[in-house]
Design brief:
single chain; mainly alpha; 2 domains
Length: 142
C-alpha cells in the first residue's frame, strides 16, 4: 500500500513538473520563432517599405553611429532598442513600444520621423503589426 502511495505522489510530481515546464517557455525563444506567413506578408507589404523610406537612413546597422544607438534594419536591433535602454518594439504590446510612441508623436521629446508624422493608416499598420507579435522575417543580425 505504501508503494502505491509513493508511486502516486511521484507521478503527480512528474506531471506537475512537465506542466510547469511547458507553460514557462522562454519568451525570447517565442519571439525568435519563425513568424507565420501572413505576418511576414503584412511586414513586407505594410511595415518594411515605411521603415526603408522613413527610418533606415538614420537607424541602420551599417552606419558608424546610428541615431540614438537605434538600429531598425534588423529584428535584433528593434528588440534591443537604442540609447534609452528600452526596446523599440515589445511584441504584442503597442502601448509599451517606443517605436509606436515615437510615430504617434505622443511625446514632444520623441517624435519620428523628424520630417513630420506618418499618415494615420501607416500608424495603425504599425500598431496592428506590433499587436500581432511584430512578425519579422529578418531573423539574423546584419
Amino acid at each position: 500500500m505504501k508503494s502505491i502511495i509513493k508511486i502516486s505522489i511521484t507521478l503527480a510530481f512528474v506531471a506537475f513538473f512537465f506542466l510547469f515546464v511547458q507553460h514557462s517557455a522562454d519568451p525570447v525563444e517565442a519571439v525568435n520563432q519563425e513568424p507565420a506567413r501572413e505576418g511576414v506578408e503584412f511586414f513586407e507589404k505594410k511595415i518594411r517599405p515605411v521603415l526603408e523610406a522613413q527610418c533606415y537612413m538614420c537607424h541602420n546597422s551599417k552606419a558608424k553611429k546610428p541615431q540614438g544607438g537605434l538600429v531598425l534594419d534588423t529584428r535584433e536591433g528593434m528588440l534591443k532598442g537604442g540609447a534609452s535602454g528600452e526596446a523599440a518594439i515589445v511584441p504584442g504590446d503597442p502601448e509599451k513600444s517606443l517605436l509606436i510612441k515615437a510615430i504617434r508623436h505622443a511625446d514632444s521629446k520623441l517624435q519620428m520621423p523628424p520630417g513630420g508624422q506618418l499618415p494615420a493608416d501607416q500608424i495603425k499598420d504599425f500598431e496592428a503589426w506590433v499587436k500581432m507579435g511584430a512578425p519579422d522575417p529578418r531573423v539574423s543580425s546584419a
